[in-house]
What we know:
Blueprint: H1 3-16, E1 21-31, E2 40-44, E3 49-51, H2 59-69, E4 75-80, E5 85-88, E6 91-94, E7 134-142, H3 143-159, E8 163-171, E9 174-175, E10 183-184, E11 190-192, H4 193-199, E12 203-204, H5 211-227, H6 230-235, E13 238-244, E14 250-259, E15 264-268, H7 275-283, E16 287-292, E17 308-311, H8 317-323, E18 328-331, H9 336-346, E19 355-358, H10 362-373, H11 379-388, E20 389-390, H12 402-417, H13 433-460
Parallel strand pairs: 15-16, 15-18, 16-17, 18-19, 19-20
Antiparallel strand pairs: 1-2, 1-7, 2-3, 4-7, 5-6, 8-11, 8-14, 9-10, 11-12, 13-14
Amino acid sequence: MNQIADILKLAREAQQQQVDAVLATVVRTEGSAYRRAGAMMLICENGRSVGMISGGCLEPHIIKRAFWLTRQGANVQVYQTGDDIEYADGVAQASVSEEGFDFNRGSDNKGTDNKYDEQDIDLDELNFGLGCNGRVHVLFERLATAMSLLNVISQVRQSQQPVTVATLIRSTIHFNTQNNPNSQLQIGLRLNLDNYIKSGKLTAIDANNSDKVVSNASSTVIHAIESLSEYKLLHKNAEYVIVKDDNDNLATEWLIQRLQPQIRLLICGAGNDVMPLVTMAKMQDWHVTVVDSRAQYATQRRFPEADSVMVLALNDSDTLLKLSKNAAIALMSHSLSQDRARLGVLLEHANHYKYLGQLGPRYRTERLIEEISTRFTNSASLNLGIKKLHYPIGYKLGGDGPEALALGIMAQVNAVVHNQNLSAENSDTHLSNTNCTTLFSTHIDSIETTATSARAAINLS
């Protein structure tokens, strides 16, 4: 199970059992860091914890400190992963070692306000002497506050619709309210940016935040939204944004997150070699569906880890398209009739899915494409489908057997879904645009030649 799923499960259990917890979230990284912004860890007061925000280096310290750090509200701490001596502005500065730190001793300046200043972080800006030369900024907040975000993540997983959220991690903005003439935006305030993109109005994902708070946040975060390109909002999972006021002074800092649904993997074929792929996909917290036209193969008993296993008739194109919506698809039936039926539908709807891979040698797939092309009247549609098809499926990582195949498929799907460039040694697993066009043209020429020959034969007779 993936860490996100573990965190959601433990958070629900903690709520039901009325156990308090702290959510630690990486909101910014500088230099080398094991986890990216958005990584989370949940620490319960009964000693249970799930998730990782580093490679295991920071977690022991954070588990000990989480509840003390949040005793007066959410705040951000900075952790260094450099050498034992850090250099700032060319001057060597001795680091604080964790071994010499008294975890029971407090600091007067911790948790007293809603902003963090790196100059004030004297205890928790520890240098762990790991040699990574990075800095990790971590937001700490109690479960009662963080649950609004976890609920949105759960909704995204259920609806399969992404949501863009802005989380305030620093603010110097003050404003007046009826109860407090010098109010400040609260660290951990989260706004739904999709509502602004659609309607021009910002809303907090936590209903407890008043319209006044959201209104004051709006004036600062809207500039942050407008400073991000559409590409970043739609295709990057996290973006750290600094917003300055009219005098070029820092006003707010935000973590902009694009909360994405689980990767959906549709496997067409239910042979034994599919089993390791299902296992590896579930380790990555992917949503896995296995289909086959053969009822004796497509059983939940054979694939207990899969989210869904079903018998799918060869002529049931509507269900196939429904299951393949925004999915990664692996054709692994070892059956010409099944692959011909599935591939014929999917090549025609190339914009419907994120990835399509066909198991088997190259000449087998090219034979299938040639057979399918005789039914196509729209050359552009088929050409687009061929461009998106990866065959033979998966990266060539070495090794042998179903497990090695599954590893190569997982690597390739990850690369394609996350827009990573194919490596040179694996570039032959996907046709170039030129080769796709040539292949399709060859098929059309072959069809036309066959038709000409047939007409000539008729005339001769």
